[in-house]
Amino acid sequence: MTRMARSCMQSLLKVVNSAIGMVGIAMILYALWMFRVWHKQMGPTPPPFFGPDAPAPWFIYSTLGLGITLCVVTCSGHIAAETASGCCLYIYMVFVFLLLMIEAAVTVDVFLNRNWEEDFPEDTTGNFDELKHFLKENFDICKWVGLSVVTVQAVSILLAMILKALGPHPERYHYESDDDYIPDRVPLLKNYVPSPSYVVGDPVYGSKNDAWNIRINSKASR
């Protein structure tokens, strides 16, 4: 029963973890698309705000870095789910928890701080302003998408905790002593006849009285 429950938790964790990986891949593709558009806008003679002294396109790099981070977390989650190792699961839970804390901090800053836009540097590519405009026009859809991502991350932590409590597969570890192999070896030893033991020591001689009696009996028989 425990083995079946462990297998189910492993499969569920892999499925939920794959959803996080899909979000990461989508963010990487979006960042690459923004970088391609930005590179076209620069052209052979970039405008003044794209010069060497202009600020770096932090929004593109941040999106790309976050997508790569989600993919790395997904890989660690698949390794943890496959091995069911307590150490791997603990590291995976720490990674997902840190992501949740970062997302919560950004959400609180956006909703409670009226001047939250001043906390971010100026984006020379204009993609950040386009994203804000898109979020305002499709706030309901984006809200449910964000809640779904947070829910998936919370469920992944819960499944990892359950899998950690169930423990790893016992057959994947070596036995600590040879006593565990005795039941498998007993049928092969049923017809085994042990060889007689030999003791190395001084030869044993009879007592003097026995030798004297033998000599008297031999003389009497003559």
What does this protein structure show overall?
The structure is a single chain. With 222 residues, this protein is mainly α. It has a domain at 8-46 and 56-116 and 135-167. The chain has 7 helices and no strands. Helix 2 (58-83) packs antiparallel against helix 3 (86-112).
Q: How does the SSE layout of this entry go?
A:
Elements: H1 2-42, H2 58-83, H3 86-112, H4 127-137, H5 139-166, H6 182-185, H7 208-221
Helix pairs in contact: 1-2, 1-5, 2-3, 3-5
Helix content class: 55-70%
**Alpha-carbon distance between the two ends:** 88 Å
Biggest sheet features: none
Structure annotation, total helices:
7
* pLDDT < 50 runs, ≥5 residues: 47-51, 174-186
Please tally the β strands and state the result.
Answer: 0
- Tell me the overall shape: elongated
Please write the string of helix (H) and strand (E) elements: HHHHHHH
Strand content: under 5%
Mean pLDDT, rounded to whole units? 76
Alpha-carbon Rg, integer? 38 Å
- What structural class do the secondary elements suggest? mainly alpha
GO cellular component, one term: membrane
InterPro entries: Tetraspanin/Peripherin
Membrane topology: Multi-pass membrane protein
Pfam families: Tetraspanin (PF00335)
